[in-house]
Amino acid sequence: MPRRRWLRHRGCVVRASRSLLCVRGMCALDGVLVPDRESALSRRSESALTTSAEARACSCSVSRERSHKVDVWLSRLLPRSAQWSPLHSIRAFRRFDRPCGARSRDLSPPSDDRAARERRARRRRRARRRTRLRRNACDGRTRRRSRPCRRLGRDIRIGEAAAPPGPDAAPAPAPVDTFDRNAHSLDDPMSIWVVVNRDRPLNPEDFVPPDLVEVPVAHTWVPEMRQEASDAVVAMFQAAADEAGYFLASNSAYRSYSTQVDLYGDGDDPTTAPPGRSEHQTGLGIDIGTERGCTFECMEDSEEGQWLRDNAYRFGFILRYPADKVDVTGYPHEAWHYRYIGVDLATKMHETGYTTLEEFFGLPAAPMP
């Protein structure tokens, strides 16, 4: 391969191969300027110059300068030892700086006519589209053409799915749990997260919620609950009627310590909590039935019961005693008993698959005696 030298001037980049370089009729032979092209040609055979790249470069430069009358000047002749690649030389010049062996329309000065502007706009659109296709291929999207993509260290082709990570690939970072499990107390009876079971009594055991209100819903006995829980019950019952045409009713809500003493009796009923250990005493628990008379066990197979199991979390309620968690909660399955814990916690338990407060908060189980 002959040595290549480059001459930079205002109009284009001209390559000099071997020892001859011509621009606008001025030629350099072996690094020495000669007055005209004819003098240079006299020192070399016409046939060799005509068939070489130097002749095409000279013709290109001369015809270009004559047709467009561009003021071309020779800045300097690079030393013979300089080795500039065509890519670097082209990048060093913008817009109209091209090797003189390029097509004549690329060497033309900017044109103001409409056709030229449209051609340039089409070229820019095609370039943007090619860039967009390459970027989409790196993201694994399907495209028609097949072209290598080396973005972000991946080597895939357009139209091909990205290869799955190998066995040595670094595992994806585990999602960070940002839910604050300490937002409310689990022991304070005034907390909506208070956990009450056979092993976790209320303190004090004869606790009475100070914000009890009557719940304005259909009922068997007049229900009372804490204000926040009462508002949630009203919203849930209304949603059941509006969304599914189900009309729910309250069978039991707040029960005082003395009432629980009477109900518990000698403790032979496993579904009745001991006094001071009942969720009804917190003002956050409610037994739900329907206006058509479906109560207690009937809720297990009814459409209303299914709707509650699917949607109660939206209003801050959970089914407190699931059928498969008897050894955790300490009570048999009660399809009618729902406990208010707030929308945030109920939604989190629904998303993570927890069905009991004991498991979600890592508390000891309270099995049946």
From TrEMBL:
<dbReference type="InterPro" id="IPR058193">
    <property type="entry name" value="VanY/YodJ_core_dom"/>
</dbReference>
<keyword id="KW-0121">Carboxypeptidase</keyword>
<feature type="region of interest" description="Disordered">
    <location>
        <begin position="266"/>
        <end position="286"/>
    </location>
</feature>
<dbReference type="InterPro" id="IPR009045">
    <property type="entry name" value="Zn_M74/Hedgehog-like"/>
</dbReference>
<dbReference type="InterPro" id="IPR003709">
    <property type="entry name" value="VanY-like_core_dom"/>
</dbReference>
<dbReference type="InterPro" id="IPR052179">
    <property type="entry name" value="DD-CPase-like"/>
</dbReference>
<keyword id="KW-0645">Protease</keyword>
<dbReference type="GO" id="GO:0004180">
    <property type="term" value="F:carboxypeptidase activity"/>
</dbReference>
<keyword id="KW-0378">Hydrolase</keyword>
<feature type="domain" description="D-alanyl-D-alanine carboxypeptidase-like core">
    <location>
        <begin position="224"/>
        <end position="342"/>
    </location>
</feature>
<protein>
    <submittedName>
        <fullName>D-alanyl-D-alanine carboxypeptidase family protein</fullName>
    </submittedName>
</protein>
<feature type="region of interest" description="Disordered">
    <location>
        <begin position="101"/>
        <end position="171"/>
    </location>
</feature>
<feature type="compositionally biased region" description="Basic and acidic residues">
    <location>
        <begin position="101"/>
        <end position="118"/>
    </location>
</feature>
<feature type="compositionally biased region" description="Basic residues">
    <location>
        <begin position="119"/>
        <end position="135"/>
    </location>
</feature>
<feature type="compositionally biased region" description="Basic residues">
    <location>
        <begin position="142"/>
        <end position="151"/>
    </location>
</feature>
<dbReference type="GO" id="GO:0006508">
    <property type="term" value="P:proteolysis"/>
</dbReference>
<dbReference type="Pfam" id="PF02557">
    <property type="entry name" value="VanY"/>
</dbReference>
